[in-house]
Amino acid sequence: MNEIAQPKTSIILFGATGDLAKRKLYPSIYSLFLSGKLSKNFVVIGAARREWSDEELRENVKKSIVESKYSSDKVDEFCQHFYYLPFDVTNTESYSQLKDKLNQLELAYGIPGNRIYYMAMAPQFFGTIAIQLKREGVTQSEGWNRLVIEKPFGHDLPSAQKLNNEIREAFSEDQIYRIDHYLGKEMVQNIEVIRFANAIFEPLWNNRHISNIQITSSEVLGVEERGGYYETSGALRDMVQNHLLQMVLLLSMDPPIRLATNEVRSEKIKVLRAIRAISSEEMENYFVRGQYRAGELSGLQVPGYREEKNVEKKSSTETFVAGKLMIDNHRWAGVPFYVRTGKRMSVKSTKIVVQFKDLPLNVYTQKSRDRKIHPNLLVIHIQPDEGITLILNGKKVGLLGETVPVDLEFKHSSIDGVNTPEAYERLIYDCMLGDATNFAHWDEVNLSWALIDPISQAWAESTQEIDTYAAGTMGPEASDLLLEKDGFKWWSLKDL
Ligand code: NAD
Fold first, then answer.
1. Among 23, 295, 443, 448, which residue's beta carbon has the most beta carbons within 10 A?
2. What is the pTM of this model?
3. Residues marked as catalytic
4. Nearest CA-CA partner of 155 in 186, 120, 189, 126
5. Residue to mutate, 20, 124, 180, 182, ligand 1, most ligand atoms under 8 Å from C-beta
6. How buried is residue 470: exposed, middle or buried, by Cβ count under 10 Å (0-12/13-18/19+)?
7. Atom of ligand 1 nearest to the CA of 88
8. Block means of pLDDT (10 residues each) for the chain, length 496 residues?
């Protein structure tokens, strides 16, 4: 049996009292602990503004684990590895305290100066923290030093470049781990396996056999408490620039020569460079936006976006985006990649639908025009279900020789079925191991903003009122028209 690697590590969590830490990071680190991926030689230093003690942090960590699916009797033992430091990001004194605390704890826990700095606080602090860590000598340890940085990585290309310049003052590119938690999801990682480990798919994976690919990430929730943040972001920046584009890249890149970080990244970057840039004049043929108005969801009336807390009464922030991306290379010329994401839609679901081309001559449609056949679809279910469905045509039982779509399905629910690890759990462990394959390289971030900026600019300059859609639907009509113009339709997620 292979031994599990247990890198001896200190994790410094900036924003330890925040929502992300509580909901995702503590349960994920605990799960690593339970599965034997953390040795006894680890500490977590929580740094945040509040004047907490070690005990208060531990109580909170314990609470978040007990409320998660990972609760077990090892929580107290785990929490003993947590220490708290009241921290003011702009005060140099905080950094020298952090340095002393790290030196002292690493000595006590036998950690050879391996440090992960996890930025789980407001993005305006990322640059300052990185620079100060270096200036105050915190990063001058014996071991490795790595920076994990949460989204958003800038809000457009200039701000992303500025942030990157700041963090690069203190960390080299190979020390920077830009988190895109979609890349830690089980089925997103499975895209590569489906494509590169199955002889039946790769030969078909091109414009000769695929007619279009659809990626949807829909939510039923509205903006909840995060109206203030969402007003500065919108669906395009919040979801498309990072998560949906990353899925497009995994689906469209050429097979890497090896599954090594640099090889995968270089294939992703190559395909990113081939995505057609969209000018503002052509924008509406490629991207549409919408905002939810009041509507009904599961029998309940829900308010429109403009009625939400901390949202402008005349806000034109998009809560829905649908877009068409064309990849102008040999493999994909002519195949649209449609992406769609939104809040307050009718289902919560993330799915990829790969639609194959119809046969050049179909004897079943030839016989009678009524005898339609269903296109072959490969559906990759990302969440809440995980798995794949392949939709084929079979013979309908009976004497008429009709066809009927049949599903080959391998699927389970990620909520109540097999306990797949949290995306964060995987990514934190990857970072401990120094594997940056599932993190975004600066070149990817740079190119993706260059692609997204003209879209947000065109919308910001538009004098047209934003389209609306009723809460509980799958977005505005313009989204359906986007595909209809090309002779396609969105496949209904409920039926797949
Ligand atoms: P939050 O507002 O809940 O927490 C912010 C944390 O930062 C708190 O611990 C607070 O004490 C600390 N902080 C704020 N100002 C400080 C200062 N001047 N000095 C020291 N500490 C300070 O935020 P969050 O929702 O946990 O998000 C944190 C980051 O993670 C953001 O970049 C966010 O975009 C990103 N993110 C969050 C989620 C999520 O689900 N919450 C998901 C993806 C990405």
1. 448
2. 0.95
3. 243
4. 126
5. 20
6. middle
7. 19
8. 87 96 95 94 97 98 91 92 97 97 98 97 94 96 97 96 96 97 93 94 96 98 93 97 97 95 96 95 95 96 97 97 98 98 97 95 69 88 93 87 88 59 92 97 98 96 96 98 98 88
